[in-house]
Amino acid sequence: MEDQIATQPRLLADRIAAALAQDAGEDPLYRRLARAMRLLIAASEMKNNDNLPSERRLAEVTGLSRVTVRKALTALAEEGIIGRRAGARAHVVKDIDQSLSVLIGFTADMRRRGADGRSILLSQDVGLPTPDEVILLGISPTDKVMRLSRVRLAEDEPGSADI
Fold first, then answer.
1. H-run or E-run covering 70
2. pTM of model > 0.70
3. Which domains are present in the chain?
4. C-alpha span between 48 and 139 (Å, rounded)
5. Where do the HTH gntR-type domain residues begin and end (predicted)?
6. Alpha-carbon torsion 70, 73, 78, 82, what sign?
């Protein structure tokens, strides 16, 4: 298992270098490198919480300077695509934004993004609807409604509360 963890950033460095080599654009090199990494993340070749190769390793495999690599990583961090902490490897950050044009369930969306999604039920009750609920739901005042309060978690981090 330790060997797999150690080789993961090396394999990613090779994939990043290959993606960069395919980009013959005229943009500055740091933008091309950032674009190559962005494309790998979008294609799920780099997944949530994957550790990125070190700046030195990326510079070695791409032939770019560490300053150029650092500038690309900074651009990705400013976009919220990767996370960086002093003394730790940069890593892919979850993108948990959901397009409003496509509606899917929270758990299914988290699974699709490679994250663990779950809910914690805070309360549940059944009773008669309020006047607002009768109007909004188009139901009879004598129909029963169920009310739930829950917190939605993505990778055990609160993402939303449904009350």
1. helix 66-78
2. no
3. 2-92 (1.10.10.10), 106-162 (no CATH)
4. 43
5. 27-96
6. negative
Q: Please count the CA atoms within 13 angstroms of the CA of 147 that sit on its side-chain side.
A: 9
d(CA 10, CA 2): 13
- Counting every residue written for the chain, the total comes to 163
H-helix or E-strand containing 36?
helix 29-42
Handedness of CA 85, 8, 153, 42 (dihedral sign): positive
Q: What is the pLDDT of residues 9-60, one digit of tens each?
A: 678 888 888 888 888 888 899 999 998 888 888 777 777 788 888 899 999 9
Residue 113 C-beta-side C-alpha neighbours within 13 Å:
22
User: What is the helix, strand, coil percentage profile of the chain, to 5?
Assistant: 45, 20, 35
**Measured between alpha carbons, how far apart are the two ends of the chain, in Å?**
42
Six-digit token pair at 130?
A: 């309020």
In the block, which residue shows the tokens 């674009």? 35
Read off the tokens for 37: 């990494």
Question: What pLDDT, in 10s, does the model give residues 93-132?
Answer: 855 455 555 567 777 777 766 677 888 899 999 999 999 9
The pair of structure tokens assigned to 54 is 């070190």
